[in-house]
Design brief:
The complex is a heterodimer of chains A (about 90) and B (about 270). Chain A is built from 3 helices and 2 strands. Chain A is α+β, with helices and mostly antiparallel strands and about 90 residues long. Chain A has one domain. Chain A is elongated. Chain B has about 270 residues and is of the alpha/beta class. Chain B starts with a strand and ends with a helix. The chains are: A alpha+beta (about 90), B alpha/beta (about 270). Chains A and B meet through helix 1 and helix 2 of A and helix 7, helix 10 and helix 13 of B.
Chain lengths: ~90, ~270
């Protein structure tokens, strides 16, 4: 083992294990990536989600959380994905 | 046609007004006829930083409402030729600024000025939106600190969508990052985000780094923009930033902190080894 590596090890020992700037960077990268996705969504998406929810609720008894709307961008077009969890189907006698 | 620059940040207290004042002085010093406008309606402060607070008679809102004309409201700067200040109003009326009103004033100023510097208020309310709406360039002032970086990213989102250039599908606003209150010492100890960290997160061109400096408070105490203190690190860093804004290639300085004797020894040994 060279002298430098030993010295580095000693230096490292006196330094705190994780630097706060590193933590800051990681936290920022995660939250900013998330917020960029949110802000790239068109403004009408939320209003449309509410309208769709109202239409479905007219026919089926569902909760707000049972409807998920995702907009996925691809080259040349966007795909609107609508995911509705319906309550268990009740058979008529 | 004047070039319109907005100085923005989202977060308050990061150095927007300090930057607006120094940028305006720097541009005027280079011979460009420049006007700096305070968009912080209700919380006027650019006048204090520029040292012209006792000469305010009419303001931005007076001009928009037609209560005064531009020549009456513009204050000629004492320090530099070719520089004028348009102060904000102290009214509490939130709706004092309108798109049409601001647009008309900027158009009028465009006829005679080379640069219009818009000092944005903090936040994302009307004043901040209007300060950026007509801009050609944006200087995003950021501290190497989590809330400031996050807010800056938010402002970049607004610059790309809620501005005239964005709405009309024109060439986007040119964005410049100005990192302020930078402390190389704290970066070296791992307790402050580095230039590279902030650059990686925001990914817009770096215009300059203004080091944390006692000169900034001294400058605002005396109402003389810090760029005029050419003995100070901050003043020199602002001068460099002006040069880069005008297209000059200037290396960044004041980014290396003094290293401890122990680290220096290590680095020295490493160099020796190579």
């Amino acid at each position: 083992m060279s002298i430098q590596t030993q010295l580095h090890k000693i230096l490292h020992y006196f330094q705190r294990s994780e630097k706060s700037a590193k933590v800051a960077k990681e936290r920022l990268q995660i939250i900013i990536a998330h917020e960029r996705i949110e802000r790239d969504k068109p403004d009408y998406l939320q209003a449309m989600q509410k309208d769709l929810l109202d239409v479905i609720a007219k026919y089926v008894n569902i909760n707000k959380e049972d409807v998920k709307i995702e907009l996925e961008r691809q080259e040349g077009c966007s795909i609107l994905e609508l995911n509705v969890v319906l309550p268990a189907f009740q058979e008529k006698n | 046609m004047a070039k319109i620059i907005v100085v923005t940040s989202g977060k308050g207290g990061v150095g927007k007004t300090t930057t607006s004042a120094s940028f305006a002085v720097g541009l005027a010093n280079r011979g460009y006829k420049t006007v700096v406008i305070d968009f912080d309606i209700g919380l006027r402060n650019l006048d204090l930083i520029m040292g012209c607070e006792r000469r305010v008679v009419y303001d931005f809102v007076n001009v928009i409402r037609g209560e005064a004309n531009l020549n009456q409201a513009l204050i000629r700067d004492k320090h530099v030729k070719e520089l004028y200040v348009l102060p904000a109003s102290q009214t509490r009326d939130k709706d004092a600024l309108t798109v049409e009103g601001v647009g008309q004033v900027l158009e009028e100023l465009s006829k005679t000025f080379d640069y219009i510097v818009c000092d944005s208020p903090a936040g994302i309310e009307r004043g901040a939106q209007l300060a950026m709406y007509f801009a050609d360039s944006a200087i995003v002032v950021t501290n190497p600190e989590v809330s400031s970086v996050r807010d800056s990213d938010r402002m970049l989102g607004l610059l790309a969508s809620k501005t005239k250039r964005a709405e009309e599908g024109k060439e986007p606003i040119s964005e410049h990052l100005l990192l302020t209150r930078y402390s190389p010492k704290r970066v070296a100890t791992g307790d402050m985000l580095s230039i590279a960290d902030v650059n990686e997160i925001l990914s817009i061109p770096l215009l300059g780094i203004i080091p944390e400096s006692q000169a900034v408070l001294r400058a605002s105490n005396s109402g003389v923009p810090v760029i005029l203190d050419q003995k100070s690190d901050a003043g020199l860093a602002y001068s460099d930033a002006i040069g880069r804004f005008l297209g000059e290639q200037i290396p960044h300085r004041f980014v290396e902190g003094k290293q401890s004797w122990f680290k220096r020894l290590l680095n020295f040994r490493e160099k020796e080894a190579v």
